[in-house]
Prior knowledge:
The structure is a single chain. The chain is α+β, with helices and mostly antiparallel strands and 348 residues long. It has 2 domains: 2-31 and 80-176, Cysteine proteinases (Cathepsin B, Chain A, Alpha-Beta Complex), CATH 3.90.70.10; 186-333, no CATH class. Helix content is 44%, strand content 15%. It has 11 helices and 10 strands. The chain has helices at residues 16-27, 34-40, 67-74, 87-99, 154-161, 186-203, 214-223, 233-245, 255-268, 277-299, 306-333; strands spanning 2-4, 44-50, 58-63, 104-109, 123-133, 138-142, 150-153, 174-176, 205-207, 210-212. The strands form 3 sheets. Strands 1, 4, 5, 6, 7 and 8 form a 6-stranded antiparallel beta sheet that branches. Strands 2-3 form a two-stranded antiparallel ribbon. Strands 9-10 form a two-stranded antiparallel sheet. The longest helix is centred in the last third of the chain and has 28 residues, at 306-333. The mean pLDDT is 93.
Amino acid sequence: MKKMVKGWVHTPGIHCGSVAIRDVMAYWGFDLSEAMCFGLGSGMGFFYIVTADFSPTRMIFMRGPGMEHIFFNLLGKNTRWKYADDPEEALNTSKQHIDNNIPILIQSDIFHLDYYDSSTHFPGHVIGLWGYDDETEMFYVSDTGFEELQTVSYENLKRARTSDTPQFPLKNNWFEVDLRHPIPPLPEVIPEAVRTNARMMLEGASSPRGTSSVEQIKLWSEDLPGWPEALDWKWCARFGYQVIVKRGVDGAGFRRMYRDFLREAEEIVPELKTLKLSQKMDAIGAGWVKAAGVLKQISEGDTPDTKLLKKASSLSRELWEMEGEYYSTALEKVTGGLSRSISEGGSA
């Protein structure tokens, strides 16, 4: 048996989670940009992880936790990532939703996805399930920048959904997206989304990866001069550079994407223009690009350059100050919108 969600939608984009959200919103008849989906999901974040369990031993991640379910909760659909201990049960549940023309979002490890042919584990990667074929034992999935639906074997999708990579093990993480109801007007939800992301960064938001917060930027800044102690210092620096400008982050650790969200938001909620939030975020994004360039220089050296590490530390401290000022302004001065608070947390 072969079954496809009728009228499936996929438009290539930049980041896995925000593309997946935009696709399912378009499927249900709501035309939102990827930047708007990212911003409504409070996608800005920062993790700093130091571990001896795998390499790189010092890692940063720039997206906040729980973006997908925060987005849908903001729109009035109370949903969280679900889990299943049995991979076969998870597979059958996914097929049942597809039979009912309800798209599924899942978290995966690209190492096991057929079409990536990757030698690197990257768990938490969000893709959409839009169809399956029992004869070929393949799922049809949408994924970020790929133009067409991709195919993944049943067995490899089971592996991708149950990756046990340290720091972010997966347990068939998924949720269905059924939006057969109106959503709140954007002028109501945008202010709450801006405040929620600011609150998460100032107060900290937990996930399996650890805590995402502006204070983690400060910790990273303070730790950078000690990176030569790590045997894999070169890979730590290269990975940091990639995470800021290369790995589906819109070139500045998601800060440019969030800037674009704010620019859209200012046209919908004119009061936001007076706070100049998009201008602040544009400057923050430029700062992250500058810091990434220094990390790239460090990674290209034969020995760790202490002067460059101190420069990276100084730049990251400036970013801590800039982001702290932005979030404080957003939380204290953005008014209007919903009166309820949106729950964060959940999976990364």
